[in-house]
Every structure is written in structure tokens, then in C-alpha cells.
């Protein structure tokens, strides 16, 4: 019997070690994986933002629409927002990787039209194209998808942006509480703050300065232009026919009490 005692001890020790190994493995699997370490050497090279075709379209857009802002490679989540705060993850997962090649914006940053270059040969639109078409239609943004070997002319690009009135220049905001009968300024401000809480910035995963309340106030009010407007008279002189330039109203003078 004594000759088998070392074997019993060794078997029990192996069983204990195996149990401890299994428990350690289970604990390691349950532990959330941290971010991978940063590389020691960043083996990257610079690349141009535009291809040759995109560079030609960008120059044509600047020539055709000198009074507008032209942004390149603009993500869809920069100019749309979920109406339901509970669906932020769903919409961000669907839209986060999509962008338009060019976005034509008004001076206050409102997107008026989007342009993409197409390299397919007449095939059906892919999933990314269908997503962009649906998003831009929902946001009432004009969308042009042109073949890379048949670029639009300057007159065709000018037709993208309506020039008749300010009201037709971009997507219109929904009717707010302040326009409803019986609404007070306090309830209107509270309603606007609640509406802002339904944006991407509700989740820290989608934190973006564009969706901050200050940026939203600029967009809603029409202020906060992206470039220096300069003298009001000069803007009015440079505006093409059909473009309405709103000059700031002069300050009201208080009556002098005698």
C-alpha cells in the first residue's frame, strides 16, 4: 500500500493543478479585453486627399458655387441625427462608415447638396449607395452621383443648389413648440433642450463636438458662419442674381427722456 502512496499524491496534485488552470482560464475569458498596445514604429505614409477626378470636381465646385462652402469626405453622421435616442447605436453602426465625396454647404454649415463619384459600369447600386440615397432623401439633401469618366459641367453643378429663396436652400427644421399656440418662451426653450438630448452625444461612444448644444444653437439660428462674411455691402454686391442677402438690422435707439 505504501508503494502506491506517492502515485496517489501525484495524481491529487495534478488534479488540483488542472482545476486551478481551468478556473484561471475561465476568469481570463470573462475579463474584458483591453485595447491593444500602441505600436513602437508607425509604418505609415502620407497620401493625397483627392484623386485626380476628385480634384477636378472640387475645382469645378469652387468655380460654380463660389458663395458656398465645399467640404470633402464628409461622414453622414456629421449632418444627420437620430430622432429616437434609444436607436443611437443602431444608426451609428449603420451610418458611421459612410461618407459623401463632396458636400455643398451654406455659409452657416447647413448641407444643401452631396456629390459622389461612381466607378461602377452601370450595375445596380450597392448597399452603401442605397444607404446614402435613403439618408439624404430623409434629410432633404440633393444627391448627385456621377460617373468618373463623365464629370458634370459648371452649369449642371449650379443647378444642384436652389437659388430662388433662403427657404429652399436646405432641409427645413421641424415645427417647434414655440410656433404652437399657447407656447411660452420658457417651455419653448425647454423643448429645444429636450430635442437636443436626442442626438449622438447622448452616448460617450459617439462624442462629437459637432453635436454639442452650442453648435446646434448656431445651426438652428442661422448664425455661426464658417467664414468671415466681411462688409455687408460687399456681400450684397457679390451675390448672384436670385440670392437673397440679409443685412443685419440697425440697432433700435432708445427714446430720450426729457
Describe this protein with a few key phrases.
Trna Endonuclease, Chain: A, domain 1, 8 helices, 11% strand
Element-level helix/strand string:
HHEHEEHEHHHH
Percentage of residues in helical conformation: 25-40%
- Name the CATH architecture of the domain at 52-164: 3-Layer(aba) Sandwich
Q: In order across it, which strands form the biggest sheet?
A: 1-2-3-4
- Could you list the spans in which at least 5 consecutive residues all have pLDDT below 50? 164-183, 209-216, 218-223, 231-252
- pLDDT averaged over residues: 72
Distance N terminus to C terminus?
122 Å
Number of strands: 4
Which structural class matches the secondary elements? alpha+beta
What is the CATH T-level topology of the domain at 52-164? Answer: Trna Endonuclease, Chain: A, domain 1
Distinct helical segment count = 8
